Amino acid sequence: TGDNRAKRYALQGSRWKVKDLTYKISKYPSKLKRAEVDKEIQRAFDVWTGYTDLTFTPKSGQVHIEIRFEYGEHGDGDPFDGPGGTLAHAYFPVFGGDAHFDASEAWSINSYKGTNLFQVAAHEFGHSLGLSHSDVRQALMAPFYRGYDPVFDLDTDDIEGIQALYGKKTMKTGPRFGDDDDQDGGFDGSHDVPSKTPSSADHSLCDDPKFDTIFNSAEGYTYVFKGEKYWKLTENSVAPGYPKLISDNWIGLPGNIDASFTYKNGKTYFFKGSKYWRYKGKRVDGLYPKEISEGFTGIPDDLDASMVWSGNGKIYFFKGSKFWRFDPSQRPPVKSTYPKPISNWDGVPNNLNAVFQWTNGYTYFFKDNAYYRFNDRAFAVDATTPAFPRSSAYWWFGC
Amino acid sequence: KFVNAAPSDSNALLYLSQFGYLAPSKGNSSHLMDEKTYRKAIEDFQAFAGLEVTGELDSDTQKTMVLPRCGVKDKVG
User: Fold this and answer.
1) What is the pLDDT of residue B75?
2) B64: which chain A residues are within 8 Å (Cβ-Cβ)?
3) A85: distance to nearest CA of chain B, Å?
4) Are A310 and A331 spatial neighbours (Cβ–Cβ below 8 Å)?
5) What percent of chain A has pLDDT over 70?
6) Whole-angstrom Cα distance, residue B45 to residue B39?
7) Which of A167-176, A199-208, B17-26 has the weakest average pLDDT?
8) Is the CB of residue A123 less than 8 Å away from at least one CB of chain B?
9) In Å, what is the CA distance from A228 to each residue of A281, A320, A334, A362?
10) Which of A66, A105, A124, A235 is catalytic?
11) According to the model, what pLDDT value does residue A264 have?
């Protein structure tokens, strides 16, 4: 209780005795389509399903959690106050678990404008499950609304809180896990720098090793995209049975992707032209594509490459001779001091094809048939023998 | 209630009471409160919100009190 008390989540003192909960939305906001509200509310519940065995099923009639969008005084003695101020409130399990949202707010979906419905709902459902407010500023259960976060995820404080109530996740419930048809002999990500091993799998990347983008999936697999096709990389080469079609696995994703990255929330973002997509595993994660200008304000279209840099965990975008840093926890996410010249990354060329942080923690830049390994401490391309640039075909595709 | 206007002491009393830092006042009457209780409530709010704990209704505290937020109390009995 003292000021020097460690900051952390707080449990109200009650929780549900069952883990399969039902809910219904009895009153909708006027300015959003019902189907969109349904989707966002389910997504908000799924946040908690991701770390526990809780499941949330919409149904009519008698339910555990009732959701309503209301104006002003709405029958529970805790009136809403119009736009701003109080956005919503919810009742702990012992008081019924219901969640009420102030209908006078400008509720929005995937936008910096208005008040983000998904984030506020995920917070309120934390109360419906028995979590009180946390004094960890960046936690979802902190009391203050912190603005739209395109790469939202629970803070460890939130995860510890909900697992203190309902235990860790033991089964694959809720959102289906990526049905990665590549569950076959993928490598485990324990990596050295890839060594040369001729692969019988496929030689098109040997003949022309220039590609569109490369990224690690949340499961730890490394994928290379080129045109309509993709390859999975093993520890030292291309996995057998490739290439495959992007459209057969990342349903809804086009070919000729400009850039990609996988963020710490486990989601992979793809960029092409003025649009971007977000996937969880190989499953699109919401209504996509969206405009880059909408979800990544300050970042240009027609990108060359993107990555999450091993040096600071921030997101970097590259185009022509310039780069931008995008920090979703900052407002604005791109400082006015950007773009900056790529030459700041000592030894890295302009007009890149791709860049990513490999599972060995190094950052690799790719251009044409060659690649560069970056030394974060020296903040320069690694000065090793053999020197960089090195042949992508030889070192990455086993040619 | 105040929205966006910098809260005065009476508004701050409402806020602190609404979010569990002070005993709820009956809607139709206001009760006398000693300075120490009020100061302690402000200190508790400042500590919870990650502000400098001054016990004064300073500008940072006032700004935080007008931020959009959840209506559930911070301090639950």
Assistant:
1) 86
2) 144
3) 4
4) no
5) 90
6) 10
7) A167-176
8) yes
9) 18, 23, 31, 27
10) A124
11) 86
